[in-house]
Design a protein that fits this description.
The protein is mainly α and 370 residues long. It contains 20 helices and no strands.
């Protein structure tokens, strides 16, 4: 029988051995420790995981938003190579191709999207815009109609079709579509703004004023709405309020060239020529290329006897709009006046009469910006 003292000795030996092994195993710098730590993290190179069709699609959308269109197009191509049955990717690629002016390839993509998904709303509504760009009005109308049939609750599709009627100068149809869009979404200020334009063109001043007022109520920062309303008020003879609208537009957006053009035109009509010249100059500095603005400034130069400046402005007006008959006529007057000026044969009273007649012809012809 083993004595108690012998048992204690054996236990002590066991404990010392255990401690010694522990110290040996955890010794700093021991290569066995390093081996053990690496055991759970293999050093073999990771396999490259191939991108999915969705990965390429997401990348394409991100690159497109950043303006990297070439790489976006390449990613759409790769996404469709991996998943050739995805109608939505065909639509996205078609929209990109349209934006680059490649209408035929865009139409091909839309056709494929519709073949895969015959009721793809976005394929039809976007293809309609491509048909518009190609001036294929009937095909555009058909596609808008199909899009609206697929999604009759889409006020944006109905409003988009109004742009087609604008291009084909079908004012009544445009008003009808925008009225329908307003019934579907009465909080969309842009719909009132656009309908006001068509009502103005049609001569429905009161209805147009009401629409501009509602557009401004819903979007008080819409400077262009003030400019358009100013043109309407000017044509109705409400000069004071027209100038007020121009001033407000400029306060909202001091870089809106058309606001200066509108105010200059009103001042020109009031024979405040020096103030009008200041506004025209600011409009041109901001990049305005309005034929009517060059024409009106040409009239002012003509009235001041500055025939070279007048001729240059009339020339520019005709370059921008070859059908501007009044600018063509005045170009002839300016050239005649320039040729005769050195001989003092220009009748200043006749010049003034000409200006007054032209101003009276221009009165009431203001048209809103589209």
């Amino acid at each position: 029988m083993v004595s108690q003292s012998k048992i204690r000795q054996l236990w002590l030996v066991f404990c010392l051995a255990t401690v010694g092994l522990a110290v040996l195993f955890h010794q700093p710098g021991d290569p066995r420790v390093k081996w053990r730590s690496n055991f759970a993290r293999p050093t073999e190179p990771k396999l490259q995981i191939e991108k999915s069709a969705r990965d390429y699609y997401v990348n394409a959308v991100a690159r497109e938003s950043k303006g990297d269109l070439d790489q976006a197009l390449a990613d759409y191509d790769e996404s469709l190579r991996l998943d050739p049955a995805n109608a939505d990717v065909y639509v996205r690629r078609a929209v990109l191709r349209h934006s680059r002016g490649d209408f035929e390839k865009a139409l091909s993509d839309y056709a494929e999207a519709i073949r895969i998904d015959p009721r793809n709303f976005y394929a039809f509504v976007n293809r309609a815009r491509t048909w518009q760009a190609k001036e294929e009005w009937d095909k555009a109308a058909d596609d808008y109609g199909m899009a609206i049939e697929i999604n009759p609750n889409s006020d944006s599709a109905v409003a988009a079709r109004a742009t087609l009627w604008q291009q084909t100068e079908d004012t009544d149809q445009a008003i009808d579509d925008l009225s329908q869009a307003i019934r579907m979404n009465p909080q969309a200020s842009d719909y009132y703004f656009r309908r006001a334009y068509f009502r103005h063109v049609k001569g429905e001043s009161e209805s147009a004023l009401q629409d501009y007022a509602e557009a401004i109520r819903l979007d008080p920062a819409n400077a262009q709405a003030y400019v358009n309303r100013a043109a309407l008020r000017q044509s109705d003879g409400d000069v004071e309020n027209a100038l007020g609208d121009c001033d407000q537009a400029i306060r909202l957006n001091p870089r809106l060239a058309l606001a200066y053009v509108a105010r200059a035109t009103i001042r020109y009509g009031q024979r405040e020529f020096d103030l009008a010249l200041e506004d025209f100059e600011q409009a041109f500095r901001l990049g305005s290329e309005e034929p009517a603005a060059y024409y009106a400034r040409g009239i002012i130069w003509f009235s001041k006897g500055k025939f070279d400046d007048a001729l240059a402005d009339f020339e520019r007006a005709v370059q921008l709009n070859p059908k501007h008959s009044a600018a063509n006529v005045m170009r002839g007057f300016a050239q005649f006046a320039k040729d005769k000026a050195s001989n003092s044969e220009v009748d200043s009273d006749g010049t003034e009469d000409t200006v007054r007649k032209l101003q009276s012809q221009d009165a009431g012809q203001s048209e809103p910006d589209r």
